[in-house]
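User: Can you predict the 3D structure for this chain?
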Amino acid sequence: MKYDFDTVYNRKNTNSIKYKKHPRYPDVSDVIPMWVADMDFKTAPEITDALQSASECGIFGYTELDDEYYDLLIKWNKKRFGFDIKRDWIVPCEGVLFGISAAIRALSKAGDSVLIMQPVYHPFLNIIKSLKRRPVVSVLNFDGQKYYIDFNDLENRIVEENVKLLLFCSPHNPVSRVWDKEELCNVVNICKRHNVIIVSDEIHSDLVFKNHFPAASLSKEAADITVAVTSVTKTFNLAGIKGANLIIANTDIRNKTEREILSTCAGEMGIMSAAAAKAAYRHGEEWLQQLLKYLKSNADYVIESFENTKIKPIAPEGTYLMWLDCRKLGLNSRELEEFFIRDCGVWMSSGFIFGEGGNGFMRMNIACPKSVLEKAITQIKKRL
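Assistant: Here is the predicted structure, written as structure tokens:
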């Protein structure tokens, strides 16, 4: 491979959140961190070069995105997803969660119902509550192999709870589903029928092992009710630099959301995030393709390693986050967490934090060198 994903880098003492001590088990040392969605790979060297070039001036003032930025973003979405984006649909902002929060504030009011499908990325619930909206939950169906949307429950919840907005995760974190076109069309049709706006977190859209369809790309009707939130930060391991885009075709929805972003005086992308994003869109595709092959190999290794054990990995369709069914271990959520931390020396995300349907599961970040993954699996299997 042209790019190196095997080298193990020492990230301790770098203020990395991933490598901090576990807040509940600070006495446990040498834990392998496989929790937060942060890769242990260096980003594409072309991005590093662009960041170094941007730093040479030594002046880091306010930055305006140029025509090239928008052109590269539009071409990236057309090539990878067949999604034709018009320039005026693009609303840049400083981060995905910031964009999601701004859209919720702009498109609903305090007391309105916002629906999520659990188990799901846990900040969703926190954001809804902090904005004084009322969370409504539809639980995904699980057949032991794969997760599915419960469309009857979804529509019933929307009607019964007078839902105004669906906070959607596509691809879905933590269960690693890449929703197919039929599933997405069903979601859009239900929301269209009941005047529900979709805010679609698509930060993992590039990290897929099958075709990803942006919700807004399905039809004019879909685009008309969708706010898509995208970023290169997850794809190229740039979370510490930040930067995101809201893709909004509907003029009224876009104007409301953009006004909300501008009202915070915090909607601008910085000089480094702009430089990194442009380099990623221009040069990053080959690095990404090799990363995906590496991640798929890691995922296959996890599945093979846990065969005939009490841990059953759910085969991921996307993301670098594997959802492990640990219910056969017979431990409650806290016992399960302590088992992996204290007994196995592996720090994963506990399933219960992702809401209903998460008890008895763990989320493992496999975006690490194969040698680190092998060490973690070996340590776990010794304790099974």
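The mean pLDDT is 97. The chain is about 40% helix and 15% strand.
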